Amino acid sequence: MSLNLQARRALLLAALALLALPGAGAAEVTKPTIAVLSLIGDEMTLVTRRMSTGSRLDRNDRQSVPIDEPTFDVAAAVAAERAIKEALPKAERLRMSVRDKRLFALQDGVFEPGPASDGLRQALQALLLDAKATHLLLITKRRDVAQFRLADSHIGDGKIEGIGIFVDNTVGLEDPVRRQSGTGYFACYAYVKATLVDVATMRVLGASHGSESVMTTAIGMSATNAWEALSTAGKAENLMRVADRAVYAAAREVATTL
Fold first, then answer.
1. pTM of the prediction?
2. In angstroms, rounded to a whole number, what is the distance separating the alpha carbons of residues 218 and 173?
3. Contacts of residue 184, Cβ cutoff 8 Å, sequence gap at least 6
4. Is residue 8 part of a domain?
């Protein structure tokens, strides 16, 4: 027996209503929840250039200065969260704070299988899952050649990593605008890496680098050397500034891949 016109119309309206339901016939798209964890702020490094000739070896002197307070890691997290908000405005953001020395020592090596990393990676995953995070944005230290911008070139020697200050008391410099010259400089720097991870599998989805520096010289100053040309507070402010810029650039680049 065929359906009458009224019954057919009712079925058609029901079908159209079903098609209009959000998510009907397709998986519902969920907003990502991105946890941010920084592992760059446990120490800073004071690197002093040593004069060396006839060798490619990095002969710079290094002094590690432990940092007990999470000052730089908080600043890095704030910068990363700002980058996520701009790149992925619909994503939820979750800030994490872990001060485990083993994790700081491993850095992004925590994602490489092995006896030193397996337990920490599993513990980190459990923590992230409990927090309902879908992704992790991990900020770590990056090691690379020291390069600090001049007007039309770069200067530096050896390799640097993470957050620190590079001091060169011997190189001659010239300010082309003021036509003045001087000897020596120091640079506050931040060399970082941002890694995006899928929490369910702890698989790395992507990574990007960030590097920033601010140079200080004694050119045109009453100070006898570059180090004295900027106060302790000024050095700390420059370190915070380069950390913010480096982390933001790296985090924003990798966040756009999600």
1. 0.85
2. 10
3. 167, 168, 169, 170, 171, 173, 217, 218, 225, 226
4. no
Residue 19 lies in a domain: no
Q: Are 255 and 196 in contact (CB under 8 A)?
A: yes
**DSSP character for 173?**
E
Q: How far apart are CA 253 and CA 181, in angstroms?
A: 38
Confidence at 25, pLDDT banded by 50, 70, 90: very low
Q: What is the DSSP letter of 3?
A: P
In sequence order, what DSSP letters do the residues of 201-257 get, joined into one string?
A: TTEEEEEEEEEEEEEEE-TTSSSSSGGGGS-HHHHHHHHHHHHHHHHHHHHHHHHTT
Q: Say if residues 44 and 65 touch (Cβ distance below 8 Å).
A: yes
Q: Is residue 91 part of a domain?
A: yes
Q: What is the mean pLDDT of residues 221-225?
A: 82
Query: What pairs with residue 209 in β-bridges?
Result: 193
Contact (CB, 8 A) for 230 and 216: yes
Higher pLDDT, 31 or 6: 31
What is the domain extent for residue 119?
31-255
Residue 191 near residue 216 (C-beta atoms within 8 A) = no
pLDDT of res. 75:
97
Q: Which residues of 184-213 are buried (b: 16+ CB within 10 A; e: fewer)?
A: bbbbbbbbbbbbbbebeeeeeeebbebbbb
123 SS3 class: helix
Phi/psi at 64 (5° precision): -85, 135
Written as six digits, the tokens of 2 are: 């065929």
Answer yes or no: is 94 within a domain.
yes
The number of distinct structural domains making up the chain is: 1
Number of residues in the chain: 258
| Tokens matching residue 153 | 């070139």
Beta strands, E only, 56-95: 61-66, 92-95
